Amino acid sequence: MDRKKKCALLLLLRRYRKKKQRRFWVHPFITIMNPVGNYFLLKYKALKTDEKKFFEYFRMSIFSFEELLSLLSPYLQKQSYKGRIPVMPLEMIGLTIRFLATGNEIRNIHLDYYRGISTVAKIIRVVCNAIWKFCLNANIPKITQQLFEEIAADFNKKANFPNCIGAVDGKHIRVRSPPKSGSLFFNYKGYNSIVLLAIVDSKYRFIYVDIGAYGKESDSTIFHNTKLYDLLMRGDLPTPTSRPLPGFQEPVPFVFVGDEAFSISNNVMRPYSGKHLSVKQRVFNYRLSRARRYVECTFGILANKWRIFHRPINVSYDFAIDIVKACCILHNFVINRDELDTPIEMIIDNSELQPLQQGLNVGSQVVSANIIRNEYSDYFTSEVGALSWQLKLI
């Protein structure tokens, strides 16, 4: 045997000796507490006897949970291996939902349900990926012109803001700082985060999400780097044809509404800045805030139902993105089936989902965008578009 082969064998032997050997195939704690592996099944059957307790436990109705189970089971079902019984899809989905709903650490899920820590972590990630992959199209449908027209009609009905096709905002979600990331994730609030940028409709549902931007990035950079903004700038986004505001003759494009963190453009409206504003400008800011509050409430509902957002997500960067993706899908999934179970006054508490840093919007206001905003201001103070109470609230 030549020298190179001997060295290679010695290195392999050293690596084998250094490799940590498992003390147990299944820890005695688990074999004692969950010998048959049916602990979760027993709890599930008990919870199903009471609809209210089931909803409190899983944050969704029995009907919604079983529908989710039927959708994902074909992709989560595993075959037995060497006589070992695999974890059933029912338990995999139940553990994941409970993890997202409570915000508990993976170690606590391990101690509560008597499954190995690595097993629980793998289950949660597999299920989160399955939720995003197999439930995305049904719960965040592809954007079409018909969808935008329906959203605009609903915003006009509920928020009295015509030609509005969505409210846009972004939130910082606390995460553990990834290794060797420097200050990439360190935001202006003083902690590490990733950004969830979302556009929502007036039913508190996500219609577009962009997840995973670095916490240090500015709002304009994040929005301008999205695929949706790229389509919007190229004219490929299927927005409806411009139409006049009620009682007016000049066609106005359909717009997204955002706060001061976003730069104004022909299709993005933001409030007038400054303190010394005219009555028209203050009315416009009030009316825009009535439409924009839907995205703030949506983030509040998200954090209130899926309390994983009430603490820093203590997993890897990619895993954290998978978790946020799954929560956005589940948010729409539950609203579409169970509707809102939380009073509106309780859902604006989104303290763990911090707002984006406000930009200065220097040099980005084009004349046409300001003309469009002025057109809205005139409409909101006209006899056709004015609300009887708006002057009392500005």
TrEMBL record:
It comes from Bicyclus anynana (Squinting bush brown butterfly). Signal peptide: none annotated. The keyword DNA-binding does not apply. Belongs to the HARBI1 family. Residues 168-332 form the DDE Tnp4 domain. Pfam families: DDE_Tnp_4. Its cofactor is a divalent metal cation. It is found in: Nucleus. Keywords: Hydrolase, Membrane, Metal-binding, Nuclease, Nucleus, Transmembrane, Transmembrane helix. This is Protein ALP1-like. Its main location: nucleus. InterPro entries: HARBI1-like, HARBI1_dom. It comes from the Eukaryota. The chain crosses the membrane at residues 24-42.
